[in-house]
Amino acid sequence: NEEIFKNVISHAKEYGFVFQSSEIYDGLSAVYDYGQLGAELKNNIKTYWWKAMVQMHENIVGLDSAIFMHPKVWKASGHVDGFNDPMIDNKDSKKRYRADQLLEDKIAAYEAEGEKLKAESLQTEMDNALKAEDLPRLKELIEEHKIVCPFSKTANWTDVRQFNLMFATQFGAMAEGSEEVYLRPETAQGIFVNFLNVQKSGRMKIPFGIAQIGKAFRNEVIARQFIMRMREFEQMEMQFFVRPGTEMEWYNKWKETRLKWHLALGTNPEKYKFHDHAKLAHYANAAVDIEFEFPFGFKEVEGIHSRTDFDLSQHQEFSGKKMQYFDPEVDEETGKPYGNYIPYVIETSIGLDRFFLVTLINSFEEQDLSTEDKQDSRSVLKLHPALAPYKAAILPLTKKDGLPEKAREIMDQLKLDFNMAYDEKDSIGKRYRRQDAIGTPFCITVDYDTLTDNSVTIRHRDSMTQERVAIQDLQKIIGDLVSW
Ligand code: ATP
């Protein structure tokens, strides 16, 4: 499995999907750049999400709020005081760890050794310590269970300290008199503070949602596993505002709707599972993760949280501005309008980069195509055609006799509707392999017959079958397969 993951990472680099940021300077830890094909794939994922969430729902609208927000926003949201990880340093290796992660690893080790009771009791003790924010107790547990640093193999630990995950910077030209602001650690707060702006200007009626895609920043201490956990990443979030008391109904609806979105890409349903949160964040009354089976195990890709009226109430308190909605609908029980209230919120929050990784892992295959007399293999990205960076590649059989000109003519027509690749270098077989490796669903070969019969050969990426079709039918054939 580790091997598969390594291959996915090197494939992503080799074909221009993902590069390490500032690579010529040896990179910047947990920051990545998307290359020419990565940018296309990422955009297609965004479009798939935006269409499904905004354009397919009359009662959901989009937003694009700023990364910088008033510092009080993060006081109100609880991020200044509560967005912390308990960290511990090993004095010998000088390496820093998340205390809860060290304990989790120990629990997993006990389980692997069949020490079920030990695992369970440590889990309970850790949960209690985390809940009570009892940092000395976390250290005690680490010592009691003789946890050593994976590098130095020593148990020479510092105390456990809270480490805030927000990046701070100076706002204004001069150090003195300038104000400290944060890079947002989630996009959701931009939605909450604009709740009434959107509701009033869009004349939205509850239930309704506001969706946005944007960057978020977290000073993650343990940054590993490629684009799984980054310091700069993108989120696709939707906050759905509902009448208090109806939140569980909507929570369950969004849980199902979001899983369907994942499965609509043709993923094996066994690769996904729900994971209910046993420990709830301070703002939530129900929370579930949609987990995907990565090569390193089932891990969260998306969270669905019932956030109650926590955020809007906090902003009402901190800003002194009413965050209420007037609901004119009549309550059947009382015969009176529901009137003014602070809505409850169901949130769906998915990491764009993490989902990008899901897409790569899910679609990457190394196939052995050897026959009795010939060794052969290919790397293929079986991307859903709607996500593929290029929808089709145009390949003139040779570089002469008017074939490139004819190929360009076909390309010029199709590129109005689809992102197209053009390739005339190397043998046709090699060109097919290059397109397979970047997930192009169709290769269109222009040959000598094309000049007289106006037809081309179209090759399908997954089945590798070929068929002869009229040039005038290409648009419909490609269009049918790349749409949802
Ligand atoms: P985790 O437990 O993995 O740190 P989280 O519970 O803190 O995640 P949320 O705050 O619920 O995550 O964020 C919603 C989504 O944003 C996550 O499901 C994940 O896909 C994505 N995400 C969160 N942190 C990162 C990160 N550092 N890098 C990439 N994606 C992230």
From TrEMBL:
Keyword Ribosomal protein carried by entry: no
Coiled-coil region list: 100-132
Pfam family, one: tRNA-synt_2b
GO MF terms held by the record: ATP binding; bis(5'-nucleosyl)-tetraphosphatase (asymmetrical) activity; glycine-tRNA ligase activity
E.C. designation(s): 6.1.1.14
The keyword Phosphoprotein belongs to this UniProt entry's keyword annotation: no
Cross-referenced InterPro entries: aa-tRNA-synt_IIb, aa-tRNA-synth_II, aa-tRNA-synth_II/BPL/LPL, Anticodon-bd, Anticodon-bd_dom_sf, Gly-tRNA_synthase/POLG2, Gly_tRNA_ligase_bac, GlyRS-like_core
Any one Gene Ontology cellular component term annotated for this protein: cytoplasm
PROSITE patterns in alphabetical order: AA_TRNA_LIGASE_II
UniProt-listed SUPFAM superfamilies: Class II aaRS ABD-related (SSF52954), Class II aaRS and biotin synthetases (SSF55681)
Aminoacyl-transfer RNA synthetases class-II family profile domain location: 134-389
Principal location listed in the UniProt entry: cytoplasm
Catalytic activity reported: tRNA(Gly) + glycine + ATP = glycyl-tRNA(Gly) + AMP + diphosphate
GO terms for biological process, alphabetical: diadenosine tetraphosphate biosynthetic process; glycyl-tRNA aminoacylation
Subunit annotation: Homodimer.
Record's protein name: Glycine--tRNA ligase
Organism: Pedobacter cryophilus
Organism lineage string: Bacteria, Pseudomonadati, Bacteroidota, Sphingobacteriia, Sphingobacteriales
